[in-house]
Amino acid sequence: MSKETNRFLAPAGQKIKLKDYSTHYNGDLGKKVGKATLASIKEKLSNHQETLYAENSHSVLIIFQAMDAAGKDSAISHVMSGLNPQGCQVFSFKTPNSNEYAHDFLWRHYLALPQRGRIGIHNRSHYENVLVCKVHPEYILNERIPGYEDVKKVDKNFWKARYESIRNFEKQLTENGTIILKFFLYVSQDEQKVRFLDRINDPAKNWKFSSADIAERALWKDYMVAYEDAITETSTKNAPWYIIPADKKWFARLTISQILEETFKGMKLKYPVLPTEEMEKLEGYKKNLMGEE
Question: CA separation (Å) from 193 to 65, 112, 212, 216, 248?
Fold first, then answer.
């Protein structure tokens, strides 16, 4: 990673304090320059995607987590707009349904993993189970886990085991060729307020607003602690977390695209080379086609 993008990395094995990260950093770039740079990176991402598909040995899983109104949806639409939809799989995870609750918490996320050669994008993810559920431990009771019939039993040991399950899940994926990138869009409480008011004041955006958003906003400090714990426990060398300043949407989109492009470049993807026998056949086909009248 470059020095600029590395500043957003949550180092593996270190205690993360969000106060050490900025929500409004923009690298002294202007919005116009940032948008132009993003446009050029999109072309590179498109080329990388084609090589990823052709090589067919890796998959890429991109995870987005954030507080409400941090810009996850718009980041996905802008950064991924240059990619071929046939090579992408986008999942937005909501509250589990009865069938999903009938399985372990990782089950539905296994089902949504990208195939080799494809890019998977998870808008919210298995991390909801150590974020929302940690702020609202009563939700754990819906999973009907033996020994956890009382919310008082959802203690430190429970969360320690759940973090370990997530690390093992991601370790298995990376060992089998999945590149994992995790982005926390770090928006300030003040900026969230501005965006909520915008949703309320603009009739075209009213549908984006929910009274539940206000209830969760009141638990801001609890969520920040939950994010710090989750990132600390699960940012690893092979499945890193990036804490992205999200007060300026254009800069968040640019930073995410830069990290993706650098990651693809580091994978050193190559188009498959045909065996000599197949190359000779191609030459024969070429001569036949060139000889047609």
Answer: 18, 33, 14, 12, 14
- Which two tokens mark 34? 């940032």
Domain ranges of the chain: 3-290
Give strand pairing partners of 178: 59
Query: Given this structure, which CATH class describes domain 3-290?
Result: alpha beta
* Distance set, CA 21 to CA 31, 58, 183, 246 (Å): 21, 31, 14, 11
pLDDT range class, residue 56, cuts 50, 70, 90: very high
Contact 53, 228 (CB under 8 A): no
- Exposure of 189 in the CB half-sphere (CA atoms within 13 A): 12
| Angle between helix 249-267 and 31-55 (nearest 10) | 30
- Quick one: which of 137, 116, 128 has its CA closest to 61? 116
pLDDT class for 259, splitting at 50, 70, 90? very high
Q: Name the percent of the chain lying above pLDDT 70.
A: 99
